[in-house]
Amino acid sequence: MSFALKMPKLSLTGVGATGDSIIRLKAMGSKKALLVTDRNLIQLGVLDELFASLKNQQLDYVLFDEVTPNPTVDMVNRGKDIYLQEACDSFIAVGGGSPIDCAKAIRIITSNEGNIQDFNGIEKVKYPGDFFVAINTTSGTAAEMTSNSVITDTKNRVKMVIIDDKQIPDIAVNDPTLMLGLPAHVTAATGMDALTHAIEAYVTPSAHALTEPTALEAIKLINIWLPKAVSDGQNLEAREKLACAQYLAGMAFNSAGLGLVHAMAHQPGATHNLPHGVCNAILLPIVCEYNAEKNPERFRAVAEALGGDTSKLNDSDAADLAVLLIQRLSNTVAIPAGFKELGITSEDITSWIDKAMIDPCLGGNPRVPTEQDIQTLFEKAL
Asked: Could you give the 3-state DSSP secondary structure of residue 205?
């Protein structure tokens, strides 16, 4: 049986990676790029280094800064129109998962016939599209190097999950200097998102020899460095370590897949526009406890990666320790205790269950849940 490891053509990491990526984009022959981002990042000065690099390389660009958290079909369509009208020939996305996912989707519909809704699901993209540089400003989503994009269909109140390795950016950039200004609550949410990626990728039946080491190393790094980055956002070492951790987690789930946490977390994000990382963090210990009944031995390794001593524990008790340590880390970085704190009621859950059951991420879960299982887990997360 063969194993796949899906990666960008090139990954640039460390101080100065942003400028290096623009040099390489110019060398590829780009004349005009569509720059997809969030205008808040511009106001915070996060893109100042990028703007300077574009000027130094005399690379023309068109700014599309309308992306907001949980990007929508309408945003994707507006970006497509601008790309075609301005005769752009490449993409630069700067931000967390939202701008990068939006750029991925724009790229799809500028190079393939049809609407973005036609690509919801797995391996439906025919052509990869024009050259794409993805510059990450958070330490969580790994969107800069993965084959996934998540776009909200506001009409049907559902998050579409598009999974295809043709979406992987050509150049992935992790420059920790762009992450220094990230607020503590965003650092916490994105860090827990990365932890979810790593754990789900490790416990899925699709995990293999090329994904297991990266998943476990990501868990170790996040456990050590996330609290430090949350408490001191200017800690450059913590930012760099977290950037590496979320990239390793991306390497793992990009090939092994995800699971029930993501299938469930997409639903409150779609209906109530809640932060994806917070939804994952609330659900993670609850779903891990559920999954551990199927494969507790896998959660022993998770507990150990989180710094737990399992030497005197059986597999079941070691799995319980893993759940405890996940919850402890979540509490340390001040993740909300449950969805009630975010305005969710038990009535909201009803509309989520069917959609979670058909979410593309569910296929990677070690246990096959029933609708009743999912309802029970959502109720525990309130």
From this structure: coil
What pLDDT does residue 250 have? Answer: 96
Other beta carbons within 10 Å of 345:
9
For residue 342 the two structure tokens come to 């975010």
pLDDT of residue 4: 80
Asked whether 233 and 183 are in contact (CB, 8 A), the reply is yes
Q: What is the pLDDT of residue 162?
A: 96
Q: Would you call 201 exposed, middle or buried from its count of C-beta atoms within 10 A (0-12, 13-18, 19+)?
A: buried
Alpha helices in 258-345 (DSSP H): 260-272, 276-291, 296-305, 315-332
**Closest among 148, 126, 120, 138 to 188, alpha carbons compared:** 138
Instruction: Give the strand order in the sheet containing 171-174.
Output: 10-13, 171-174, 131-136, 90-95, 32-36, 60-64
313, burial (CB in 10 Å: exposed 0-12, middle 13-18, buried 19+): middle
- Torsion-angle region of 334 (φ positive above 0: left; ψ -120 to 50: alpha; else: beta): left
Below-50 pLDDT ranges, the chain? none
Report the 10 Å Cβ neighbour count for 288. 25
**Residues 35 and 63 sit within 8 Å (Cβ to Cβ):** yes
Q: How far is CA 210 from CA 34, 38, 122, 164, 256, in A?
A: 34, 34, 21, 19, 9
Nearest to residue 178, comparing CAs of 71, 52, 63? 52
Helix (H) or strand (E) holding 117: none
